[in-house]
Specification:
Radius of gyration: 12 Å
Distance between the termini: 15 Å
Strand content: 35-45%
Shape: globular
Oligomer: single chain
Order of helices and strands: EEEEEH
Largest sheet: 5 strands, antiparallel
Helix content: 10-25%
Number of strands: 5
Number of domains: 1
Number of helices: 1
Strand order of the largest sheet: 1-2-3-4-5
Structural class: alpha+beta
C-alpha cells in the first residue's frame, strides 16, 4: 500500500510499505519512488534496518513511527 511520510524538513515522501515475514520475523519492506528499498524490523521499542540498507537513523525512526500508527489503525497524517 502506498503512503506519504512527512520528513523532518517538512517535505513529503511517497513510499510503499509491505508487511511480510522474513525468517519468522515480522518485517516491513519500504519501497521508494526511485526504486530503492529497505527492510525494517522492530526490536522491542526500537526500529532497525538490515545492515545492507541505506536509510539515515532519523528516517528509520520516522517510518517506524508511521508503521506503528498503521498497526494501530490510526496512521499519522502527512
Amino acid at each position: 500500500m502506498k503512503h506519504k511520510i512527512k520528513l523532518r524538513d517538512g517535505t513529503v515522501q511517497a513510499v510503499q510499505i509491505i508487511a511480510t515475514t522474513f525468517k519468522e520475523l515480522k518485517v516491513w519492506l519500504v519501497k521508494f519512488k526511485d526504486g530503492k528499498q529497505a527492510m525494517l524490523y522492530k526490536s522491542g521499542n526500537e526500529w532497525m534496518q538490515r545492515i545492507e540498507d541505506f536509510l539515515d537513523g532519523s528516517l528509520v525512526m520516522i517510518i517506524g513511527n508511521y508503521i506503528d500508527g498503521i498497526d494501530q489503525e490510526n496512521p499519522p497524517q502527512a
